Structures are given as C-alpha cells and as structure tokens.
C-alpha cells in the first residue's frame, strides 16, 4: 500500500519516518472551520476528518493520513497565532497553568476509515515577559497550536509535567498511528 501523509508539519513527517513507514507528502486545500457548538475534545478529530474528506478520491492501493492538533486551556481553544501579539497573549495565558493538547488523526483507504483522538495534559511553569519574547523571537511559533512546540526551548525549559504521550503534544500520537496503520497492512 502507498501511504500519503497530508500534512505540512515537519514534525509529523519526521515522526512517521521514525516509525519506519515509507510515504509521500501530499497537500490538501481545506478551510479548517468547525461548528462552534462542538465539544473541545472533538475538534481535532473533526478537523482531521474534514481534511480527509477534502482530499481527492483514493486509489485502490492508497492510504491517506490526516491530522490536526489543538491546545485547550479551560475549554478555550488556542489555535495558531496570527502574529507576535497573539503568540504573546497565548503564552501569557498558558503561563503557570495546566492545559490539554488534543491530536486527532484520520487514516483512510477505499475499504476503511478510522479516526481517533489522543489527549495529553501539560503543565507549564511561570513565564516572564522576557522569556516569552525570547521564545517568540528565536523560535517563531506561528505554525504551532498554542504558540509553542514541546520539542523546542519552551518545552525543555518550562514544561514541568506531562500526562499522556509526548508525541501527541508534538502533533502525532505515534503509538495510536502505528497500531492503526499496522491493521491496514
């Protein structure tokens, strides 16, 4: 089977490679809008399914993988920041608190369609304005939900506690993706 990863995320690409799969990266043009009445824990999976549905019809030998990650603090979704000011605001909100990271994924072939969500809780220590400015200036987290990457400086220096999979926080719950993909073969 030919695996197609529909993601612009270099982290998802790296993680799928590290799982030992050979695949091709493909693009999907899809407006990522979800119903406002959707429960926070359902949004990431909804968006991954939306992306999968926006892809062209699959061939008999193809498997498509889509994914989406959201960060939620007290039921407020913190998406990708539009600019430095929004990134700064998000990081101030996360400072000294525990939030959840939900990553949903969809794996689809002509015969099967499986979607799952994994969640991890992340406790971030207090962030000073100087630390927030340093992080934004040096790591430019504008492509990351919640304005941070767990694998970067902020994750190393400020995450105090994680409950759940580190890779879910990176945007790809590798343990679940691996088990589902093995069933497709």
Automatic annotation (TrEMBL):
It comes from Kaistella gelatinilytica. It holds the Pfam family Maf. Transmembrane segments: none annotated. Coiled coil: none annotated. The active site is at 68 (proton acceptor). HAMAP family: Maf. InterPro entries: ITPase-like_fam (IPR029001), Maf-like (IPR003697). Its EC number is 3.6.1.9. Belongs to the Maf family. YhdE subfamily. Its cofactor is a divalent metal cation. This is dTTP/UTP pyrophosphatase. Gene3D superfamilies: 3.90.950.10. It is found in: Cytoplasm. It comes from the Bacteria. The record marks 11, 69, 151 as: Important for substrate specificity. Keywords: Cytoplasm, Hydrolase, Nucleotide metabolism. SUPFAM superfamilies: ITPase-like (SSF52972). It catalyses: UTP + H2O = UMP + diphosphate + H(+); dTTP + H2O = dTMP + diphosphate + H(+). Signal peptide: none annotated. Nucleoside triphosphate pyrophosphatase that hydrolyzes dTTP and UTP. May have a dual role in cell division arrest and in preventing the incorporation of modified nucleotides into cellular nucleic acids.
